[in-house]
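2024-03-11 09:14:02 INFO worker-7 job=invfold-0412 stage=load source=structure_tokens
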């Protein structure tokens, strides 16, 4: 039965019931619905709105429903309108009229709002844990390859030498910001709408602070209209998730490039790749391609929420039922991607010789050659032009800056001495980049320690 059927004189068309129903997706909030109801019942009893006898019966009945759902002894009725209707109907079936008193002083509007906040708070904590696990995998690989020189890129063109560890630490920084955003989100969303009623509160002498505290919220929402109509916390979380997915997609794109024969910087473990139905030699990075594809899906979830809310007057509107499928999908998608990507990173094999071979091509030490001249007094812009001419000379002769004879250096400028070769050595190029955040070994070591410290502070959600 519907909780609202008293006003109506005829049965609702079955097609409307099916269209209106949300049980197929909001049933995942069963535990939160029961937890919120138990807190509400305890408050009603404490305020003398419910008798001690009814309060005890409700608590026992709700606890029994939760236990039976968790054990599988009770199945959720797919014909129920929503999870709130199912729980209340089951409670009334078990304890009689006392179950009908549970809804005193609240509406489904504040009920669903508190359920969703409780569910998302737990889900965000799980995502935070999985982001930390991915950071752990990246930090492990970064530490192991902190000194392995590779080409850094701009415009996907070889640019300057970095190390593989330095490169991976850039992704750790992205994930740490993602975790920080989740922690910041929690500060804003962690307020209880329970007791806001349909939109205007209630005439019963309820204690909203008590239910907020019992449910682990920082306090109650201050405005009843806002409490039931706010979905900023869904939109903000979806935006945070979309940003994290963008980071995972960028990392995945690089992994796809790195494990190709054209790059051959890494080799993915067989357990995290797939083959071809017709080409026996293939080893495909399907996990990373799917992450790249699923990122667009999550962007769609965020867009759904923004468009859904943009034209809604206060307070609750049925449009807002569409919030759950979008935010649940965003959470589920990121969770799945994080769960799969962390062990993929942990088990991938890095190929340092190939990294170094790639770094030796593309004149990525050209800036260091220009810096060499600038340190000897030549204006940098002149040093830049002269080095460009040297690169053109090398290309014409099939040489590199490392193999260009000293005589040809000296023919371009008397500032060049034998020490030019030490200055443009790839290892030295990295080692000399000691500026904060750079690829020098001591800088990478400092970044590792800083990232680990920040990660420890963000693990507790």
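2024-03-11 09:14:09 INFO worker-7 stage=emit residues=461
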């Amino acid at each position: 039965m519907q909780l609202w059927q008293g006003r109506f004189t005829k049965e609702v068309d079955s097609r409307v019931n099916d269209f209106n129903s949300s049980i197929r997706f909001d049933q995942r909030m069963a535990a939160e619905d029961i937890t919120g109801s138990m807190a509400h019942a305890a408050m009603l009893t404490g305020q003398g709105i419910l008798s001690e006898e009814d309060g005890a019966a409700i608590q026992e009945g709700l606890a029994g429903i939760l236990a039976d759902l968790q054990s599988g002894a009770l199945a959720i009725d797919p014909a129920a309108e929503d999870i709130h209707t199912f729980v209340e109907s089951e409670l009334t079936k078990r304890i009689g009229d006392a179950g009908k008193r549970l809804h005193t002083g609240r509406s489904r509007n504040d009920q669903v709002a508190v359920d969703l906040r409780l569910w998302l708070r737990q889900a965000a904590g799980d995502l935070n844990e999985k982001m930390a696990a991915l950071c752990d995998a990246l930090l492990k690989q970064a530490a192991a390859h902190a000194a392995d020189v590779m080409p850094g890129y701009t415009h996907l063109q070889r640019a300057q030498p970095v190390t593989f560890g330095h490169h991976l630490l850039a992704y750790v920084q992205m994930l740490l910001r993602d975790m920080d955003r989740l922690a910041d989100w929690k500060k804003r969303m962690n307020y209880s709408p329970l007791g806001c009623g349909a939109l205007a509160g209630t005439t019963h002498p309820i204690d909203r602070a008590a239910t907020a505290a019992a449910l682990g919220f920082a306090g109650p929402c201050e405005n009843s209209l806002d409490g039931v109509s706010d979905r900023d916390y869904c939109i903000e979380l979806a935006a945070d998730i979309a940003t994290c997915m963008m980071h995972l997609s960028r990392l995945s794109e690089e992994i796809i490039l790195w494990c190709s024969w054209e790059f051959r910087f890494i080799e993915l473990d067989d357990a995290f790749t797939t083959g071809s139905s017709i080409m026996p030699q293939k080893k495909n990075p399907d996990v990373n391609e799917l992450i790249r594809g699923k990122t667009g899906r999550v962007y769609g979830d965020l867009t759904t929420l923004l468009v859904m809310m943009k034209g809604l007057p206060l307070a609750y509107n049925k449009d807002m039922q569409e919030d759950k499928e979008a935010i649940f999908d965003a959470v589920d998608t990121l969770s799945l991607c994080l769960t799969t990507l962390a062990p993929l990173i942990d088990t991938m094999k890095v190929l340092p010789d190939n990294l170094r071979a790639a770094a030796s091509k593309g004149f990525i030490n050209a800036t260091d050659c220009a810096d060499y001249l600038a340190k000897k007094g030549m204006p940098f812009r002149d040093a830049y032009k002269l080095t460009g001419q040297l690169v053109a000379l090398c290309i014409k002769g099939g040489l590199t800056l490392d193999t260009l004879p000293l005589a040809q250096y000296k023919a371009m400028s008397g500032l060049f001495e034998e020490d030019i070769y030490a200055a443009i050595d790839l290892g030295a190029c990295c080692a000399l980049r000691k500026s904060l955040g750079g690829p020098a070994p001591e800088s990478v070591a400092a970044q590792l320690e800083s990232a680990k410290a920040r990660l420890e502070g963000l693990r507790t959600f």
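2024-03-11 09:14:09 INFO worker-7 stage=report msg="The chain has a mean pLDDT of 95."
2024-03-11 09:14:10 INFO worker-7 job finished
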